[in-house]
Amino acid sequence: MAETASDLSPDASAEIAGALNQALAETVVATMVAQNYHWNVTGMAFGPLHDLFQAIYEDHFTGQDDLAERVRAIGETAQGRLAAHLERSKVQEGDESAEDKEMIRHLAEAQETIGATLAGLSEVSARHGDVRTEDLAIERGRIHDKFAWMLRAHLR
Ligand SMILES: [Fe+2]
What we know:
CATH class: Mainly Alpha
Number of domains: 1
Bound molecules: fe (ii) ion
Radius of gyration: 16 Å
Distance between the termini: 43 Å
Helix content: over 70%
Structural class: mainly alpha
Shape: elongated
Strand content: under 5%
CATH topology: Ferritin
Number of helices: 5
CATH superfamily: Ferritin, core subunit, four-helix bundle
Number of strands: 0
């Protein structure tokens, strides 16, 4: 087990940072998706959806910071450009004029995509004995599972 970040080999740090930056890119894009939908959602469920989308982007904003600062703590560079995030992310931007159910579906899929990326981060971290990054990946994964459930509960 790597007792501190400095126990990680350069190759291990680079591989873990690659997985962290992937999760970071998708979390950044999902933050914007949730804020877009917070602003533009319409319909009879406007109030609760406006609030839920806000809870999601506020969580994701914190999540971005935790992922990026873990990249720095293991000695690597946190990706910091929007264009690079968009190019790398498997989560795509949302449509401002989408129907409310389409917004919910897209955002639920985004949660699941990020969850899968975080599962990969867990695996890479565990393989290198980096339990602290693994812990972050598990914690973030649990949060994305919760939001995926909350969103999907609207669709039945
Ligand atoms: Fe607002």
